[in-house]
């Protein structure tokens, strides 16, 4: 509104804004009293009855993270898809996923203790997103313990 300097220009702009808002209210796109806007066309919403892979992919798209974390999540999703297929969990709803199922998936995709812990932390990010969207009641990854790491002592090089 501040870009218009004349009264008549401001009045015209205000009428246009009100017409757009009225049109939204009539169509039901935006109800300010509900404080909830309907999802945009083509935008999918996380639901309890979604399949595991679809829900995790959608959570991956919605998560806000750094570029390196996004890259790790993309890598994780490739392995989760394969593990879910091998374990025969393709038709399982995300709301039915338990700690046991998550642990089976983690065991299947992780080769070392380091990788297990990294996959666990990345999976926790995805399940936190699912918890926020109320697709799952609680985060089953949180109850899975990290694996102990074996630290090896390095040989110290000497001059002699």
Q: If you had to describe this structure to a student in words, what would you say it looks like?
A:
This protein has 160 residues and is mainly α. Helix content is 52%, strand content 2%. It is built from five helices and two strands. The chain has helices spanning 7-27, 52-62, 67-87, 99-109, 113-132; strands at 30-31, 36-37. It has a two-stranded antiparallel ribbon with strand order 1-2.
Tell me the layout of helices and strands.
Blueprint: H1 7-27, E1 30-31, E2 36-37, H2 52-62, H3 67-87, H4 99-109, H5 113-132
Antiparallel strand pairs: 1-2
Helix pairs in contact: 2-3, 2-5, 3-4, 3-5
Tags for this model:
single chain, mainly alpha, 5 helices, 2 strands, 2% strand
- How much of the sequence is in beta strands? under 5%
Q: What form results from the Cα inertia axes?
A: elongated
Strand order of the largest sheet: 1-2
Relative helix content: 40-55%
How does the major sheet shape up? 2 strands, antiparallel
Q: Give the count of helical stretches.
A: 5
| Low-pLDDT residue intervals, each spanning 5 or more residues | none
The first-to-last residue Cα distance is: 79 Å
Q: Helix/strand-derived class?
A: mainly alpha
Strand count: 2
Query: Which value, in Å, is the CA radius of gyration?
Result: 24 Å
Task: Please provide the ordered H/E string of secondary-structure elements.
Answer: HEEHHHH
């Amino acid at each position: 509104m501040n870009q218009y300097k004349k009264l008549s220009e401001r009045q015209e702009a205000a009428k246009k804004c009100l017409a757009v808002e009225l049109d939204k209210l009539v169509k039901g796109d935006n109800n300010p009293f509900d404080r909830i806007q309907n999802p945009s066309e083509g935008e999918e919403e996380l639901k309890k009855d979604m399949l595991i892979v679809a829900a995790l992919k959608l959570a991956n798209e919605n998560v806000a993270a750094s570029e390196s974390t996004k890259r790790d999540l993309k890598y994780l999703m490739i392995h989760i898809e394969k593990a879910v297929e091998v374990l025969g969990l393709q038709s399982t709803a995300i709301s039915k996923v338990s700690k046991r199922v998550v642990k089976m998936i983690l065991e299947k995709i992780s080769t070392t203790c380091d990788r297990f812990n990294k996959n666990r932390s990345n999976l926790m990010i995805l399940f936190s997103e699912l918890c926020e969207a109320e697709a799952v009641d609680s985060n089953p990854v949180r109850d899975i313990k990290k694996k102990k790491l074996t630290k090896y002592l390095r040989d110290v090089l000497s001059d002699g």
